[in-house]
Amino acid sequence: MFKFQLFPPYNIYTYILLFTAFLNFVLAIYSLRFRRSPGTMVYCMMLLAISVYSFGYAFELQCHEVESILFWLRIEYIGISFLPPLIIMLAIHYSGRAHFLKWWIVTLLFLFGFTTLFMQYTNFHGLFYREFRLVHSGDLTLADFQHGTWYWIHQVAVNLMLVISSILYLLLAMESSGMNRIRSTIMLISCIVPWLFYLVYLTGNSPMNFDLSPFSFSLVGFLAALGVFRFHLLQYLPIALEQVFNSMADGVIIIDSRNHLVSYNPSAYRYYPQLSMQMRGEPLQFNIAGLPELSELTEGFEAEAELPAQKGKTYIHVRAASVKNDRNKPKGWAVIISDVTQRRKNENLLIEKEKKLKQLNASKDKFLAIIGHDLRNSFHLIINMTEMLIGNIEKDNREAAIKKGKIIYDTSVNTYHLLQNLLEWALIQQKGMQFNPEPLDVDTVINEEIQNLRTLFEQKDLTITNVPGPAIRVNADPGMLKTVLRNLISNAIKYSYPGTDIQVSHSVQDDFAIISITDKGTGMSAEELDSIFGDDGNLSKKGTASEGGTGLGLRLCREFVQLHGGEIRAESKPEKGSRFSFTIPLEK
After folding, report:
1. Which CATH class is domain 434-588?
2. Which of helix, strand or coil describes residue 469?
3. Which of 15, 161, 303, 550 lies in the 20 to 30 Å Cα band around 25?
4. What H or E segment, with its residue span, contains residue 79?
5. Of the given ranges (126-130, 406-410, 479-483), which has the lowest mean pLDDT?
6. Domain 248-339 is of which CATH architecture?
7. What ranges do the domains of the chain cover?
8. CA-to-CA dists, residue 519 to 79, 464, 470, 500, angstroms
């Protein structure tokens, strides 16, 4: 039966160790209030392991019998066995690498701790202790061992875990800044100091063969208290801010009050490749797109800018927010950069759709105006002229009947052309018209359309000349090309004065044929010239013989020419005539 003193007097070492155990135990209990923070439970278990280790060693130093010392050694090893796995798990959590802690890794770490505890309790086949004896040093009685195989396996694993933990904290401290660097440094010191004390004991250089590790845990407890109460350690466990900062889709550039670069995240580098780690602490030497001079930043500043990109334009939204200290005093700026390219594309798409809807609405109004005005008037005229024609025939008034018949004919031809244009235009609006280009001879098509319109220009005593030019073959849709020619020649007839000449010519420029129709008619003012191809222009003016029109023909010409990849343009002066030209691609 072992004996130990439950109450004082104790030696000074025991007091130190009991204080260490108590301090770490209280901190472990207090830390439970932050248990929802990732890694906090590991931190609490580590402090409890330290507390158990220190508590057991405190009473071991009070004992002088083998049974008492072995009992407290078993208590100590409850903490010793699981402390290294908890230390490395905490380091992995704290450095933001918790995704590496797979379930099987955690299982192996705790299995290692249980194995060490089992070996210490049973000394299975002498794998932990080969020989056990007591050494007296003054008033103290210390245990001395000849260690077995598993003990040394345990020591190698412990040192490996401490090395990895220290490296993780060191890397984190180097990558962090400000308060996060202070927290990381606290964790680094808390890991290295006990490790150094432990190495002194392990190498046999400890005074009186003391295990100095538990004594160093008093410093760990002090640093833990400092971190928890002064630097809010557990509220940032793991360093979530660093991880969130680095994983943000938005770019963030931190600038101090002197406009020097403090930090930036990988997303910011994507927008500004000129950023580098070497620039930290240096004034920025390039402009942030969309921002004024850095010294002129104001709270709430927002702007949008365009960045060149290899695969198209990139649009960014830039805003500035002041960074303040605990006293609410400005210490610098956070420049936040968001990619708004998709939003811009959506906005442009909406603008295009709105424009298209306006065009369709204007087209609908135009369509209704034509049906409601021109077609109705044309049919009223035909009906009235037919009634009058019948009356003239009944009265045998041949001259009046011929005059009425010509009016009916002209009106019918104009109405037919109007209906033809309406149908073709409606097909284009509904995307129902097929575009089937084929090789065509320009002279042949021009002569055919002149022949089809012979009656119209002979009635106005006009002459139409197909000006000789080079033999040209184009790649065009026959119906569309004939519609363009018919409308442009019909317009020239409508606005030409009797007795004048209309010329149709063609030439070649680059890979296109240029076809021009020139008249000597009424011409147009600059204002009229600007609006003739518009989608929402007014109805066209009367011809020289009071012929009506809608302006629809020119819009149809424009759309047909554009379908071919060509252009249409007009030149005109009032009372000097007009010249309409359009391009059609040559046959390849």
Report:
1. alpha beta
2. coil
3. 161
4. helix 66-94
5. 406-410
6. 2-Layer Sandwich (3.30)
7. 12-239, 248-339, 349-429, 434-588
8. 106, 9, 22, 8
